[in-house]
User: Fold this.
Amino acid sequence: MFGDYSIGDLGSIFVMQGFAGLILFSVYVLMALGLAIIFGQMGVINMAHGEFMILGAYVTWMTSNLFQSYLPGLFSGYFFVAMMLAFLASGALGMLVEWGLIRHLYKRPLDTLLATWGLSLILQQAYRSVFGAREVGVELPQWMLGSLKVTDSIEVPINGIFVMGLTVSITCAVAYVIYKSRWGRQVRAVVQNRIMAGAVGINTEKVDRYTYGLGCGIAGIAGSAFTMIGSTGPTSGQLYIVDTFLVVVFGGAASLLGTIASAFSISQTQSTLEFFMSGSMAKVLTLLAVVGILMLRPQGLFSLKVRK
Amino acid sequence: MIINSRFFNRSELIGFVTLALLLFLILPLSLDAFRLNLVAKYLTYAFVAIGLVLCWGYGGILSLGQGMFFGLGGYCMAMFLKLEASSVENTKIQSTPGIPDFMDWNQITALPFFWKPFHSFPLTLLAIVLVPTLFAFIIGTAMFKRRVGGVYFAIITQAIAAILTILIVGQQGYTGGINGITDLRTLNGWDIRTDHAKFILYFVEVVLLFGCIVTAQFIRLTKLGRILVAMREQEDRVRFSGYSVANFKIFAFCAAAIFSAIGGALFTLEVGFMSPSFVGIVPSIEMVIYTAVGGRMSIFGAVYGSLLVNFAKTTLSESFPQLWLFGLGALFIAVVLAFPNGLSGIWADHVQSRIDRLISSIKRKSGGWTSNSVADGAPAE
Amino acid sequence: MLIGHQPKPFLLAVEALTVSFDGFKAVNNLSFYVEENEIRVIIGPNGAGKTTVLDLICGKTKATSGSIQFRGKELTKLKENQIVQTGVGRKFQTPSVFEDLTVFENLEISYPRGRTVFGSLTFQRDDAVKQRIEEVAEMIFLKDRLDTYADQLSHGQKQWLEIGMLLIQDPELLMLDEPVAGMSVSERAKTAELLNRIIKDRSVLVIEHDMKFVEDIAHKVTVLHQGQILSEGTMEKVKNDPKVIEVYLGH
Assistant:
């Protein structure tokens, strides 16, 4: 399949497709980050994660509409407001769900998987009832459109760079919160020994609720980024859940660096292959490669040998 | 009907007879051809659900990819029927006569090699069982030998189901794409679309279903059944009792795959087509809910769960399409939060205990009977 | 340390065994030998690597380097279930029995026959099986609880059941991890009696903190500290070893 292209062409194609894959990469990283936090913290598999993302996407869409109608002058800055709102909306819903559903199911990981799937069906139908079945698209402000021309054959989309920068800052912020802040210490204490953490005065229920909220909130931000690569519909989130889980598992569930590396390799493989074949075959090959590698190395790319 | 009293205990025997009456007599006598065909369609999912009882309920292995085996079985059958429907004279208007219509539309001029065995009915029957088993064996060996289980296994099976769907949809020329394989007419010359044929197929299906029920019950009652339960709780203890845990998991997973494949093949016969919408993530996880609603530890429950959930689905999605997803979602949550043992759990806790009390009080009054103490009180629930 | 000059072959020979968890050496270049019919107790402070040693022998943890020979077979290359089949039985620290099965079924699963998939499908509960199970059940004080589900048993009874499950395997080397921990005084006495009966005709490797209990049963004691042997010999010798007193028995 590479035969028809010269080396120089191939180089440009890889770079271009690489940058085109940046937004997908960002969505994967943000989604996987949220999932990994929730899974690492509570052992809960959140099958409704895609729907939390889509909530963020709908919030972004509504914000852009509001700005267009009422604050057209400030439209160029709406995306920042939308992101904040998306984070808050998804986070708040996440905390509500943790309170109403998840906290009853600790230590039953397979059951949380089914229950959160049920939740995702309910959310999908709720979106359909509220926003309609038609997919909606978001209009980007002028400055985010277009691309930077680096060389004759390489162009880099501006929104890709923007989202990428955003993802990097969010990832750093999360890393800081988890590894440096007082609250992060509490989270890690609960992860390592829930009973002991409770005994030394950490309110484990509260830690769980905020962690779950944080994970879902980040998914909301992923939804904001998602509006740039796809149109938003009630079931758009479902398509992402399997990919994201593979990202988390592939990276080794406990490793932040691993999550980023695996999101990068998966999104880039897919984006590059898409240039050479149909989107669906690119996806099949990518997922097959991931599953194949996971069969050989089930602990994921990055993991420590620990005493079980 | 003579059944070894050790094979079913009393309440299971009642369950068996009730189900047999319902499926062999009551439903065929009371439903019209259209509704009976619907029941036949629902029952194909019961095969999957019984497999999940063994694999998930007993073995603790949750597979979110059973649709893949259902689909493989169904596609094997559909390929045979399609080839029969695409005889040279039936397809003489095509640019290449003698190949399925969708291939012709996709500019394919010769039958692909993997379609060729499906000219033969015996080979097709063999493929219906062997292809999914091989699939399950490979997946199971790769995962279980490396001690991958629990949620990881669930996610991987789900991913594989997704891959298979994308592949089927993407390769329309070879698979019929998103529409699936349609317009199936005859089975060895016998028209399967008539009401009479559907009536007969229904009984074939029910007989096979009871075959699966008895097989599952047999497995459950052997030491292997108890090892599955043991494994679910204390995998290490089983290992340190000298068993290769992986082999037992592979067995359970393969058995579940075979049951699903039989269900899928029957689905093709009953409904007259097969499409990727029965293969992927969504149908696969719905199949889990049939088992959960019936009670993940109950073989009979699996049949009732499949019937009830699908009946509710048809009724609700016809009259209140919006409500159905809310209802299904709520069902997932309710069955996990409030009724982890599903219908059979409710039955055992609330109905069975009352019947037992009633019977024992009658016995006490009549005095005479000696209760033949049930030594085979297998852990049904 | 020199115990290896008799010509008699050892039942278990652990040599230069090392395992490291992400750089931390939980067991470090450890060597020891267990003879036929010997009762060896391993003691040592928390984190000394005692449980890890048992994990390594029974295959639960893979060694980084070194060798474990049992009757001349190299165990480090075998899988857990194969190690069991060569005649090594292991009891865990927390009782691990099958709570959803009855006492009878628990013991039946441990009965050493029909261990393959096909074998377990065709396994028959014949008289030999029933007789053996009843025999063992009597020994572990559970004869009248055969039809009880294991989750109904007390903590001590679960410990006994697990010992019974090992017994029915009839291993040549029995490894017990804190068999009397968490037991009441009367249960403890009964357990000691039980252990004294079952350790005949086989070698036993025990981890225990209860010094009274150790003195009662040990032929030889190995003291572990930070993954290495601190001292080894009779209880008398070990008790008077100043190094041992300093790190372990002193407090």
Residues 304-308 of chain A have pLDDT under 50 and may be disordered.
